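Revision sheet: structure tokens.
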Amino acid sequence: MAALLLPTQTTAGNSRLHRTASPFQTSRVFRLGSGHATRAFTFRERSGVILVNRLTVPHGVRAVVDARIPNLAGARVTSWPSHNDPSLSCRQHGAVDVCTQEEEWCPMPQATWHFRLVKLSGPAGPIRFDYVVATPPPQH
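Predicted:
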């Protein structure tokens, strides 16, 4: 479990560390060199539906992330658009490409998701992956 340590002030003005923790992680950044690279990692996610499945890469990087709850569910996002997948949206924002894969709102249990990032090609730089499973917002 990751914890965030923040400095806080007491009434006496002394600095101390305040610990806030969340058992759920929603993003990960990898700084990768040019060319091919692979990373495997996990997130512990709450129960709910997949609200965000997004990959942000330096412009020109071709990468894919596969997400799995072993023997139960899976999802995927790529850093390039596909004419066969209208639910994948890729946009260039300055020096980065942001690709978001829309997902059906299928209920998922609280679980540890297993991810595999494969960078196929492209320049060096940070690759950010955002993945959020939570209760869906109310529909009007």
